[in-house]
Amino acid sequence: MSIKDQLKEIEISGARVLPLVEGGKGIAASDGLSAGSWAAMDGVGTISAVNPHVPGQGDYANMKSYSSSIRLERHKEMIERAIAGGIAQARIAYETACRRGRIHINVLWEMGGVDEILHGILSKVKGMVHGVTCGAGMPFRLGEICAKYDVKYYPIVSSARAFGILWKRAYNKFSQWLGGVVYEDPWLAGGHNGLSNNEDEAQPESPEPRVRELRNVMRSFGIGDLLPIFMAGGVWCLSEWVNWINNPDLGTIAFQFGTRPLLTQESPIPITWKKKLLTLKRGDVVLNRFSPTGFPSSAVKNNMLINLQQRSARQVPFSAVPDATYTRPFYQSPRTPLFLTSTDYDDAMRWVKEGFVVGMKTPSRTIIFVTAEESQEIMHDRLHCIGCLSACKFSGWRQDADSKVPIVPDPRYFCIQKSLQRIASEGDAENALMFCGHQGYRFAEDDFYKDGYIPTVKELVERLQTGL
Fold this sequence. Notes:
By secondary structure, this protein is of the alpha/beta class.
């Protein structure tokens, strides 16, 4: 029996559709056109509601310009733009899908203003959006918000334990709106990953036993086998997942594709980004710890990521006062020295001679060495922060202004909003953050993309149903 014959329609968000889901991918990487085109093939299309674009208001580069010099006001403006963009993209998706398939939106729980953005979008898109997927944190209020608008919710988790916590604390009260659970492989998925502190990023685990455990936890809560688990992260072609299809141990399974939909005609990413995907080799996508969210993430190792790695390598501990260990004064300012060990002092002087003349303090009581231009860019980006995250390690922004635990800005991170806008508007795949799943190298190895061929969403979905 062919994979297409085995691939039966399942119920997702109130309709019978193919178990093929477009993953929702950050700023400018999945919009109304791509989601609607996926839904038009009787699948599930997903719009990213992370600063979605409002058609007719210029490109993503213009989103960098905010009218106020006050950060809290820029934050409010960002929320207004996100709501307007989410509504606009939902309408595009609905019209493109021609009432076929399902349309979901995707948000990060650690996104600044996520509650207000969800309420703002969902209150205006009744009948156009059927579900919400949400990860990058523990979205305890997701069920409550979606229940208000009668849409299904799909938490993104990387372990059965995480879902168990969500269910016991919140979701059991809103069980009828739970549409399914997205299991995102923390070692293979692109973007932010859900690796826990007791999991080794260098020792990936097979997803099957972890998904089986998730299903058993769902069964123990009385959810059963019919609610789908979306397998996300590392899914390239279904011929490699045949034993997951109609597997009674795993229950109902849908397959979520995040990386492959990037390379379609309808994908909104710039052509330079698409061409870069076609050149990736095995190992070009790496897990890193530079996201200001505090989560590990998977991205292409380009000039930007290499620079961040080198920046952190130029790092030494310091003391504000001399002692038997910290004996050498390093003058960060003309009057007040920091004290380094003799070995670290020699390294610091070498970095200064190489042009990394500015030492910047970190919350770890270390200093990193950067060029004068980098120092100015860091300070500029902090000054123009719009509060795109609920809490940002880079800028020190915290949405909860009443918190008694301030965040000390950390120059080892970067402005993620600026970088994602840069690759979206300029297509700068070398000097901006380029999220990608770890299967991205397969574009160059798959004959489907031979000679740089970029398919339509229709062609991709048809090919996926063949198992390739």
